[in-house]
Q: What sequence folds into this?
């Protein structure tokens, strides 16, 4: 699905002011850029460069943002995959 207008990262459902600020610090200013980078890579950029204490719920919100859904709508298998990824960083 093509989008003609860029959506600001802070306008993505579930990504608030603090999270969008962290994403902007690593060069992710739009929803399209988040889609391009992907949730795990975006999380890793923030984790390594901005916030070593970034939490699992932040990772969930990034994935949900990529899918344009709320975090509670993420499939269980997706959450399990994200949990495994998150634990590999600790």
A:
């Amino acid at each position: 699905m093509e989008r003609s207008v860029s959506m600001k990262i802070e306008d993505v459902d579930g990504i608030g002011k603090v999270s969008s600020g962290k994403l902007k610090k690593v060069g992710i200013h739009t929803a399209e850029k988040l889609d391009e980078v992907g949730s795990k890579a975006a999380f890793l950029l923030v984790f390594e460069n901005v916030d070593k204490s970034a939490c699992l719920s932040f990772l969930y919100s990034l994935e949900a943002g990529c899918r344009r859904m709320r975090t509670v709508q993420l499939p269980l298998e997706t959450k399990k995959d994200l949990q495994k990824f998150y634990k590999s960083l600790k």
User: Anything to note?
Assistant: The longest helix spans residues 76-89. DSSP finds five helices and no strands in the chain. The chain has a mean pLDDT of 93.
